[in-house]
TrEMBL record:
Domain of life the protein comes from: Eukaryota
Annotated Phospholipase/carboxylesterase/thioesterase domain residues: 1-99
Gene3D superfamilies xrefs: alpha/beta hydrolase (3.40.50.1820)
EC number assigned by the record: 3.1.2.22
Keywords: Hydrolase
Similarity field: Belongs to the AB hydrolase superfamily. AB hydrolase 2 family.
EC class name: hydrolase
Organismal lineage: Eukaryota, Metazoa, Spiralia, Lophotrochozoa, Mollusca
Protein name as annotated: palmitoyl-protein hydrolase
Cited InterPro entries: AB_hydrolase_fold, LYPA1-2/EST-like, PLipase/COase/thioEstase
Amino acid sequence: MALHLALRYHTDVGAVVSLSTFMYHNSEVYRHLQDVGIPDKLPPFLFCHGDVDNFVDLEWGKTMHRRFGQYGVTGHFETIPGLKHTVNKPELDFVKSWVMENMP
């Protein structure tokens, strides 16, 4: 939901953190980026995904990140070793440090 909102309607948010996420190949977000293009100003994006996620495949998240890059949406993708489809302290520590570095 955060990705949809930040890329289509509320580009003025401070940042977007996306955990263990993917988008279907025919997502409206991709169509919007293709038809309208990227907004003049986008927030920084962080994508985190566990390398042993047994619900949302890591490659699905990487594919989404690469596809966003094809449309000009940049962001950092962080693979979290040993993480399934959950959160853990190393991931939260990484998110905290990223937010501290990237938020105004």
